[in-house]
Amino acid sequence: MTHATTTQPEPATEDDVVLLTVPADGGFLSVLRTATAGLAARLHFALDEIEDLRIAVDEACAMLLAIATRGAELACRFAVTEDALTVEVSVSTVRGARLPAESSFAWKVLTALTTAASAEADGRRAMIRLVTRRSGS
Questions:
Q1: Which domain holds residue 54?
Q2: Using CA of residue 81, residue 82, residue 84, residue 85, what is the dihedral sign?
Q3: Taking a C-beta distance cutoff of 8 angstroms, is the pair 16, 74 a contact?
Q4: What pTM was estimated for this model as a whole?
Q5: How many domains does the chain have?
Q6: CATH number at residue 113
Q7: d(CA 137, CA 125)
Q8: Concatenated DSSP letters of 10-34
Q9: pLDDT in tens, 12-62
């Protein structure tokens, strides 16, 4: 199975969008962490902001891996704007899967490390969205 990275402009905006798909396996999370750090560095995030975002992406992926179907792929969409990086990670889920409650430790980590964190699940797919604005923005 081949996995590719593509960059394409968002039709309605001038944002940069990077789409990255990897197998839903913990061994591939380093690819997403590295992509996150590279894009945050491109936005001139401070080193501690980059590390916080790497940890948040790792935590979000761990939450999704716990409910992923066998053989699933993690789809990651990075949207880069002038002062923010939005990361959306999604995966197909097993029947009846639920993300941790917003009061859980995992969500506390996500909200502490990012500007905003949200999730959506429809019974077949789950998605976690992380938004981080560069400090001073």
A1: 16-133
A2: positive
A3: no
A4: 0.85
A5: 1
A6: 3.30.565.10
A7: 33
A8: -TTS--EEEEEEEESSGGGHHHHHH
A9: 455 589 999 999 999 999 999 999 999 999 889 999 999 999 999 999 999
